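Dear colleague,

Thank you for sharing your sequence with our group. We've completed the structure prediction you requested, and as agreed, I am returning the results in plain text so they can be pasted directly into your records. Please verify that the sequence below matches your submission; if there's any discrepancy, let me know and we will rerun it promptly.
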Amino acid sequence: MFRSREAGRALVLEKVETIADSLGAPMALPISFALCQEYLDDVVRVSDAALREAMLLQHEQLGLAVEPACAAATAAARGPLAEQLDGKRVGLIFCGSNIDHDSWHRLVSDG
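Please find the predicted structure tokens below.
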């Protein structure tokens, strides 16, 4: 969606590489693209390293072992949105704990 918004049209990508596989859709369909253009102010991207850091933070501070997609909002709030959110009350929704212990440990250890 990020690249489609930059291009101004729904795109199909040849390859998407991210540890947050549920967020790495290889295409933006015209209807979802149109809805995002109309209702979203912005779409930001975060790196796999930022996702790993957010996964660790959520585990250490909240006791949650989450999948990378669930860590995306935390990574965005701490990264590309940090300045914009500074001093504001912010609520994050954590959705996605569909990960087993070994996979979680491997992902956070890879960083």
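Summary note from our side: The helical segments are 2-7, 30-39, 48-62, 68-78, 82-85, 101-110.

Kind regards,
the structure core
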